[in-house]
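Archive entry: two folds, one per protein. Generate the first.
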Amino acid sequence: MNIKPLLNAEVFAPLLNPARYKGARGGRGSGKSHFFAELLVEEATAGHIRAACLREVQGSIKDSSKQLIEDKIEKLGLSALFRITEREISGPNDSLFIFKGLSTNTAAGIKSLEGFNRCWIDEAQAISRRSLEIATPTFRAAGAEMRFSWNPGKATDPVEVFFRRCEGD
C-alpha cells in the first residue's frame, strides 16, 4: 500500500505556494484540517513561525485543533523537538502555536496577535462576519498567511463571501 503524505497530495499542491489567504473547502474526511496541521508542523521545523489556531467557538482547549497538531508532531517523529503544554505548543526556531476562540475574545484580544505570521481558522463555515473583519487585518506581518478550512455550507456564510471576493480581486 502506497500512502502519500498529505503535503504531497496533488489536491493540496496550490496551497503550498505563498499567498496571503488560503482556503480549503471540502466535506468531512477530505483531509483539509490534517493538511493545514501538518503544514504548520513542517513550517515550524523549517523556520520561525508564530501560529494562531482559531475557531469561532472554542469552549475549551479540547475544542481546538491542538490535539490534531500534537498527533502530527508524533506521526512525523518530531516529538523531541516540541514542548507541549496544556495551552500551547512551542517548537524549534522559537516557533509557537496558540489556540483561541474568536467569539469569546474581544477585538483587542485578537488584535494583540498581529505579530503572528500564521493564522489557521478551522471550521471556518461557523466564523462570523465580525470575527472575520477583526482577524483579517490583524495578521499582516511580512509573509503572513491566513488559512481557512471549512465544510461547505450556505453561499451566504461569511467565509464563502470572503473567498468569492478574493477571487474577484
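Generate the second and append.
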Amino acid sequence: MFEEILGNELIKTHLQRACQTGNIANTLLFLGPEGIGKGLFALELAAFLMAGAEKKLVNKARLQNNSHPDLHIYQPEGKNGMHNIASIREMIEQVFLEPFEAAAKVFIIHDAERMLPASANALLKTLEEPSMDSYLILL
C-alpha cells in the first residue's frame, strides 16, 4: 500500500499501521503544501477502505477516473472557486446511504478550506458523526 507514492515515508508508515490495525477514523484531514501528494494518498486509502475486510478488489482505474459509484470527489466550483451549499448538502445525503458495490463509501473534498461558511456549518454534524460505512477525507 502506498508503494507507488514517492516520499512522505513517515505518513506512509502511519497510514499503513492504521490500516493494519483497523484504527482508521471516519473523518480524516490531510494537510500540507500544494503538490505533496495528498490526493494520491486519499485515492490509495480510498481503495483500501472500499475493499473492506473481505479485501474485495477495487478497480483503481475507476477510482482515478472518478467513475466508481462509492467514491465521491468534490472540487470547488463556480466563478468564486468555492464549495457551494448545494453540493455539500447532496454529499451529506449520500453519506448516510448504503454503499452501492464497495464495502464503504469514501468522500474526498479537495481544497476543503474553500467552503462557504454555510457549507462548512452544514457539514459539521456529519464530520462529527459520520455513518460507519462512510469515510470523509478533507484535503
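Annotation attached to the second fold: The longest helix spans residues 38-51. The mean pLDDT is 85.
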